[in-house]
Amino acid sequence: MEYVPRERVRLLTGVLSVVSLAVVFAAAGGRIPSSSVPTAPEWLLDAIPHVNVVLSAAAIGTITLGWRAIRRGAIARHRAAMLTSFGLFASFLALYLYRLVATGGPQPFPGPEAVYQFVYLPLLAVHILLAIICIPLVYYALLVAFAHPVGDLARTNHARVGRVAATLWLVSFTLGIVVYALLHVAY
């Protein structure tokens, strides 16, 4: 069943990617005022990073399950796992952006300067770079899947782009958990 016109996949991928990244960069850059989101109690804002690490771990699991499912030919299971992964990512991002806007910016690193410069910042930079690269790849893979019947997907770039997207997504989520551990566990 087609949900997206085939000739619009690239255009929709580009539009969704630009809009998504614009929102993320606006929030991270302090361009969205905290008054634009509902006020939350401090305990809720403090809970968001812990909820997000659970969402990240769950997404790693569902991406892995989706990858294994498609290798075994279980298309329905693959689709369910990848849509669940996307839902987990969207939930993670919504909570992350809400907290970012509500608190006025990123959380400062509480550890030693040497760890900040030589461990935390490089890990964070790679995590962010991979997340940025993943956005159009994930959109493209999803839109291609919605634009073609299952039998036609083998003749598209869905599998190739999906493998790259899933790999980068897994690494990005894993690095996000390491960043969380540095911010909330180690220091």
TrEMBL record:
The keyword Transmembrane helix applies. Keywords: Membrane, Transmembrane, Transmembrane helix. The chain crosses the membrane at residues 50-68, 80-98, 118-143, 164-183. The keyword Transmembrane applies. InterPro entries: DUF420. Pfam families: DUF420 (PF04238). This is Putative membrane protein. It comes from Natrinema salifodinae.
